[in-house]
Design a protein that fits this description.
There is one protein chain. Helix content is 14%, strand content 43%. By secondary structure, the protein is mainly beta. The protein has one domain: Nucleoside Triphosphate Pyrophosphohydrolase, CATH 3.90.79.10. It is globular and about 40 Å long. The relative contact order is 0.23.
Length: 160
């Protein structure tokens, strides 16, 4: 897995128990899947600021407090790129979630999360997310986004 180009990304999910706010990705990477809100970290931007900015851009909501709960590395068998996705959780926000050019927000009860319409790795780490646990992991996919290898560990804290 060495000699890969790493992209740093964010993913933020609003969790107001028993509901989570996800977005239907409308274009680009991951289009047609439910996901959290996030994207690239711009040069000179802190990861946490990128998470806040992406929520504002994609769902038109403002979050003050976000918690860094996970770091997941995603690899594809025949690609040199690795995606390091920093997972954030927010409970409170300002504004009303509104559809953007990129995402259509929708609330889901935790018992009705649409895992079959999400990335296949989500069903493994999402239970830790819902239990307020911290985690790190890695997932290797084939060119059809099937998981070939996975590793997921619960952590006491994330040191970044």
């Amino acid at each position: 897995m060495e000699n890969r180009d790493k992209k740093i990304l964010t993913l933020c999910i609003i969790h107001q128990h028993p509901m989570v706010l996800l977005g239907m990705k409308k274009r680009g990477f991951g289009a047609g899947r439910w996901n959290g809100f996030g994207g690239k970290v711009n040069e000179g931007e802190e990861i946490i600021e990128a998470a806040r900015r992406e929520l504002l851009e994609e769902a038109r909501i403002i979050v003050d407090k976000v918690e860094h709960v996970g770091i997941l590395d995603f690899f594809w068998k025949d690609k040199s790129e690795v995606l390091e996705v920093n997972i954030f959780k927010a409970n409170d926000f300002k504004g009303e979630p509104v559809e953007s050019e990129e995402m259509k927000p929708e609330w889901f009860h935790i018992d009705e999360i649409p895992f079959m319409e999400m990335w296949p790795d989500d069903k493994y780490w999402f239970p830790l997310f819902l239990k307020d646990r911290k985690f790190i992991g890695r997932f290797l996919f084939d060119d059809s986004d099937n998981i070939l290898e996975q590793e997921l560990r619960e952590m006491q804290s994330l040191n970044i």
